[in-house]
Each structure stands twice: as structure tokens, then as C-alpha cells.
Amino acid sequence: MSDLTALDAAHAAMEADEANAAARLRFYERLADSELFLLLSEEPVDENVSPELFELSDHAFVLVFDREDRLAQFVGRPAPYAALSGRVIAGLLDGQGIGLGVNLEVAPSSILIPPEAVTWLSETLGHAPDEAEARIEEIGRPAGLPEALLEALDSKLVTATGLAHSAYLAAATYEGGARNHLLAFVDAVPGAEDALAKAVSEALTFSGIEAGALDVSFVRASDPLAAKLAQWGLRFDLPQPEEVQELGRAAPGSDPDKPPILR
Fold it and tell me: Is the pTM higher than 0.85?
């Protein structure tokens, strides 16, 4: 099929080797990062959403689809929905005893995710990286990093549209002699630092690599350190947003500081 999605591909990789924990983690990462269309029982009211509930396999499930046409194909009639990220939906369902039906009957990635797996995903996404301060004394080329980590970072940074100009992965030596690999973001948008650090932490978690394997830092393009990073580091270019257009009232879930309320 030519219309396979990233979620389809991740699901296929997971199904191809059920014992492969890394493939299973990558599927859940794709699910969290994807925009999903949540089937509702009625149109959203302000920030309140009422998902349609289905009793399946001894649990209640809400249904989500990673494309609008897949939702329409499943329902077969006009139906209300809310477009939310997988991470927001997992947070809404956490502790509710409700599972997640993904692309049921309409895609190769059709799967039922039980409530306990939804809770695990929400808790995993809720982990915040530790903060520390250390003076960087030397920058060098990155070496010996697992290919899985590089792929995870590349996939994760694609989702960080407009949060920074670029990032460099390099080896760093700190005051006192400690060494570690460092991912430094260049010209991060003020206030985006926590989101970027968390994105890197998730890339590590879902690639199965210990969180301490990578430090995160933030520099301005005018800083002398940025020149050293450009000389020795592996560069990642973050996607930049298109020209912002004036929009009407925001849809539920579009403001990360005001997640929708489950009814």
C-alpha cells in the first residue's frame, strides 16, 4: 500500500518481531507523537470532550485514528471528533480504566491497547529529566553512539517544529574531567527549553537507552561555544513553521497549557 503512515510502519516492525522490545518502544513513541482523531459522542463544548465508549475485550475503549479518512471509513457517517496528540489522549485516559482502540478495522496498524498499557505510556511520558549545571571545557566529535539513538533523535526532533533553529550532538568534557555526549540546541525559543529537554529524554527512553547517556544544553548562535559545536558536532536541523495565519477559536487540545477535559 502506498498510503501507509508512520504508525503503520512502526506497528509492522513491532508485529514482525514480538520479542523485540526496541520495536515495541518505537511503536509507542510514534503513537505518542502522532496527531490522532478521537471519536466523540457529541461535538466538543469549550474544552470538554466526550469520547464514544465501546465495550471490547472486557474493557471500555475509546477509538482513535491517525487519519481523518480512516475515522470516516470506520464510522461510515458524519461523526464528531477531536484532533489531539497521542500523549494528550494517554494523559486524559490515565487512571480511568479505559483502553485505546487504534485504527480498528481500517488499517494495518489496527490494535487494542489495554488500560494498563495506556497508564504506562502516560507515566512514561510524564517523566522529567534531571537538571544540573556544569562548565563545558572542551568539545569533540561524537563517537560510539548506538545507531538506535541517532535514529530516535532524528525522529523526535522532527516533531519539535519551531522550538529551536538547530541542534548539535558532540562529545563534551566538563570542568573536573567528567565526559559525556551532549545535545546542544541553538537559538531555542524562550520557554521551550523544558519541552526540548523532555523530547530528548523521551528519545532515550523509547530507544531503550539509559537516560544518563546524553546531556542537553542550550546556546545562542552568537556564543563562542556554538562555533565549536558547529566545527565538531553532528548537526540536526529542526523544522521551521510556515508563516502563521490568523485562526479562529482554537480546537480542544491545541493549547498544551490547557488540555481538554474528559467528560
Answer: no
